[in-house]
Amino acid sequence: MGSRTVRWDELVESPEGERSFIVRSFASPDQPHVVRLYHEGLLAGHIDPFDVAEDLEQIEEFYLRRPHRHFWVAEVGSEVVGTVAIATDPDGVGHLRRLRVTPNLPEKNRVAVTLVKTALSHAREWGAIKLAFHAPVDDARAIRLLGHLGFQFTRAREIRGRHLLEFYVDLYNHLRPSPPADEQLKAIPLVANEPASPEARH
User: Fold this and answer.
1) In terms of C-beta density within 10 A (0-12 exposed, 13-18 middle, 19 or more buried), how is residue 183 classed?
2) Rounded to whole angstroms, what are the CA distances from 178 to 22, 146, 168?
3) For 105, how many CA atoms within 13 A lie in the half-sphere containing its CB?
4) Which fold has domain 10-193?
5) How would you classify the pairing of strands 192-193 and 152-159?
6) Strand 21-25 relative to strand 93-101, pairing
7) What are the sequence ranges of the domains in the chain?
8) Rounded distance between C-alpha atoms, residue 186 and residue 43, angstroms
């Protein structure tokens, strides 16, 4: 199966004091930068010790040559500063994965928002019914970002010994406002043990 052409090569203009950036499809020369961001750019600040990142060793095979999957990078000038991927399961649920942004980047929030919006747009275009994301319980930054973009907290889970929060955005009604992120933080219950989806790693 050949590689699908799914691109978002749009220049994102930035306010004064921040640089403009581009979100585009992954290309082979990006590989070392993606690996670097995997270790350095996790919004939560830590990596699942059970996540061996096998998909990042074969990004083209895993994301670009399979239906309803893709991998994007954000670029400032010639520097790759962010990544995001999406993988849709047979039930029509898309899983947001590999969201990374260079630490201390002045444009960090705008890059993260644009990467997630890119995944949202293409998941809807592919016919996915929902987009899911798992965040560590202590990752207030990611929770607020998800709330800002319309994700709603659905449940707490324990996956491979990690306490995670599961968020969904309904792609049919994604413009419907969700509860403010701070309210979602207050509504999070104690973690319950539930089986993990094979796409849940991020």
Assistant:
1) exposed
2) 28, 10, 11
3) 25
4) Aminopeptidase (3.40.630)
5) parallel
6) unpaired
7) 10-193
8) 20
* Residue 51 and residue 162 in contact, taking contact as beta carbons nearer than 8 Å: no
Q: Read out DSSP for the chain?
A: -PPP----BEEE---TTS--EEEEE--GGGHHHHHHHHHH-BTTS---TT---HHHHSHIIIIISSTTEEEEEEEETTEEEEEEEEEE-TTSEEEEEEEEE-TT-TTHHHHHHHHHHHHHHHHHHTT-SEEEEEEETT-HHHHHHHHHTT-EEEEEEEETTEEEEEEEEETTSTTSPPPPHHHHHHH----EE-PPPTT---
Using CA atoms, how far apart are residues 156 and 193, in angstroms rounded to an integer?
8
- pLDDT values of the chain reduced to their tens digit, one per residue, 202 residues: 333 333 444 455 555 566 788 999 999 999 999 999 998 887 655 555 556 688 898 999 999 998 889 999 999 988 999 999 998 888 888 888 898 999 888 888 889 889 988 988 888 888 888 888 877 766 677 777 778 888 888 888 776 666 777 788 887 665 444 444 445 444 444 333 344 444 545 5
Q: Say if residue 198 is exposed, middle or buried (CB neighbours under 10 Å; 0-12, 13-18, 19+).
A: exposed
Q: Which residue from 43, 5, 41, 3 is spatially nearest to 24, judged by alpha carbons?
A: 5
